Amino acid sequence: MPQVILPGTSQGPRCRAGYYWPHAEEGDLGRASSGKRAAHEAGKTRDHTVPQMYLRRFAEHRGRRQHELTVRRIAGINRPFPAMTNNILAERGYYWGTSLEGVPHHAVEELFSQLEGSVTPVFAEMLDAPEGALPERWPLTDAERLQLAWWISAQILRTTRQRKRLAFADSPTGGGLEAPADIAVLAANNPHLRYIVEHLAALALTVFGRPWGLGFSDICLLTSDVPVVLLNGHDARNQLAAAAICDILLPLDPHRLLFLPGAAMQQHDPGKRSDHRMKIEGGVGMALVQTVYDVADAFVLHHPKHDPWHHWKPSGPRQPAPWTGDDHPGPMYVMEYGLLAPHLTVERRWLTEHPSP
User: Fold this and answer.
1) Which candidate, 135, 188, 192, 187, places its Cα nearest to that of 160?
2) What single-letter DSSP state applies at residue 177?
3) CA quadruple 164, 166, 171, 172: dihedral sign
4) Which of 31, 152, 254, 282 could form a disulfide with 303 if both were Cys (CB 3.0 to 4.6 A apart)?
5) Is the pTM of this model over 0.70?
6) In DSSP terms, which residues pair with 14 in a beta bridge?
7) Which residues, given as ranges, of the chain have pLDDT below 70?
């Protein structure tokens, strides 16, 4: 079985499921951290399917630990409502599973927490540079790039849409030991958690090796409960292959984004075969907003003062969700953008100011 070792950590003892977890003691896979287990019964934690540290980049600061988003349900897209980052995109017991012995564990959530802690300074390096909306120093160092590649890969694998895709593609085979109802509920998460662990390292290596584009969008961006989009291959059965060849989009905040050009775009433009920066004009920006909307599972989210609906409205059918009975063809995207000269940036004031329509 594959081994998962976090970048920047030493290899820890091998846990019962066959994976290495940093700083783990023997048998920790069957136990959550002592603090969490002391405070919460197994399976009762509110697990965020999208990290709060990421959502805060799209939120308005309202007070100490108070960050407000504007949220729109896909099922009621024209009825936005406010929500705090700690109260949205969280599901009870989402990352709880059981070991082979049927012991509840929260190991995947703890892994994600470590990834989020290590990548927070990388977000600051990209987005908080005082010299402009795009930092003077680009690309990232290899160490920073590796941390962000692991984090991006986690966001591809952890979503509610990914869990639904897996459940639809691989129906339960039955069998196994009978368990009490509360343990059976946790065991139902195991296929998705196993998928995350088995694919995370390989996916991170793939993302790490792609060329990365850091950009500023004139149009306000949104994010969703599916923050990373694999254009023209988002629900591919082979997610590793899709991540190797498709364009990949990650909105970073209301006006910045990371875009990894795919094989076709690199073939067309040699400048996109290495890391670069770009300024996204209005039309392309609206197309990027559409792609995020198209793959969202249940919610899209944006900053209260950066509302894409001022310039954009949803159009066309979204990415089909076969698990709900959708059978229409999925939308296809062709993106094009120019490269920004290395000595240029965008003034930081345009992160908050908007020109007249």
Assistant:
1) 192
2) -
3) negative
4) 254
5) yes
6) 20
7) 1-40, 171-183, 357
Q: Distance between CA 226 and CA 160 in Å, rounded? A: 8
CA distance 234 to 330: 10
Q: Pairing between strand 248-251 and 256-260?
A: antiparallel
Q: What φ, ψ does residue 136 adopt, rounded to 5°?
A: -65, -35
Q: List, as one string, the DSSP characters of 198-231.
A: HHHHHHHHHHHHS--EEEEESSPP-EESS-SEET
| DSSP H stretches of helix in the chain | 34-39, 52-55, 107-127, 142-157, 160-169, 181-187, 190-209, 239-245, 263-268, 282-295
Pull the structure tokens for residue 151: 């984090």
| Positive/negative CA dihedral, 204, 207, 209, 214 | negative
Token pair listed for 82: 């406010």
Ramachandran angles phi, psi of 56, nearest 5°: -65, -25
Q: What is the DSSP secondary-structure string of 65-120?
A: TEEEEEEEEGGGTT--EEEEGGGSSEEETTT-EE-TTS-EE-HHHHHHHHHHHHHH
> Distance of alpha carbon 117 from its chain centroid, rounded?
15
pLDDT, position 3: 45
Kindly state the helix (H) or strand (E) to which residue 278 belongs, with its residue range.
Answer: strand 276-280
Question: What pLDDT digit, counting tens, does each position of 1-42 carry?
Answer: 334 445 554 443 333 333 333 333 334 434 444 444 434 578
The whole-angstrom separation of Cα 339 and Cα 335 is: 13
Rounded distance between C-alpha atoms, residue 245 and residue 233, angstroms: 9
Helix (H) or strand (E) holding 46: strand 46-48
Cα radius of gyration (the chain): 20
Q: Pairing state of beta strands 223-224 and 81-84?
A: unpaired
Task: Using alpha carbons, select from 108, 98, 126, 261 the residue that is nearest to residue 196.
Answer: 108
Q: Do you know the residue count of the chain?
A: 357
Is residue 21 within 8 A of residue 12, CB to CB? The reply is: yes
pLDDT > 90 fraction of the chain, expressed in percent and rounded = 78
301, 243, 275: which is closest to 54 by C-alpha?
Answer: 301
Q: What is the DSSP letter of 268?
A: H
